[in-house]
Please model this.
Amino acid sequence: GGLVVVPVGSVEQHGPHLPLTTDTVIAEAVAAGLSDAWIAPALAYGASGEHEGFPGTVSLGRTALRTVIVEYGRSICRWADRVIFVNGHGGNGSALVDAVTLLRYEGRDTAWFPCSVPGADAHAGRTETSLMLHIAPDQVGIESAVVGNTEPIAALMERLTASGVVSVSQSGVLGDPSGATCAEGADLLAG
Model:
């Protein structure tokens, strides 16, 4: 019985300075902060098609991810009282909404929430870099960090959706990692 927390991440490019597993590492750290819960191993692959223009990215796609989450939820709810999916990658959102809606319709106590920070930059910028400097500093190559496209994500969304991140940022960074610090990452994770 009890509560099970499942980190959901992705394997995708995060610019030249962060690891492919950034979203999974962050989701695991957020999940670990929840008390009185069993923290399940992460579902490390997600829906990352918008990043496939960069080497290292592996995407299951939204349909497959939705199916995985539904089957996972059906299985784990045979013995767990409640399941919460902690999402580290924005591209997973629609699959999680659909999967959790179906699971709840079927009578399973499931929910999900995003690892989001108000005012955060979109991808591999100061926010994620600060979080990774706090959580896994040995995985950050800060000397390789570059400023990416700093336009608001809303202004980029149409091009990003149609042609991927590579169409709006050659480095894969959406934001500016300059000024990222371990201390800021600690504050963000605690918030």
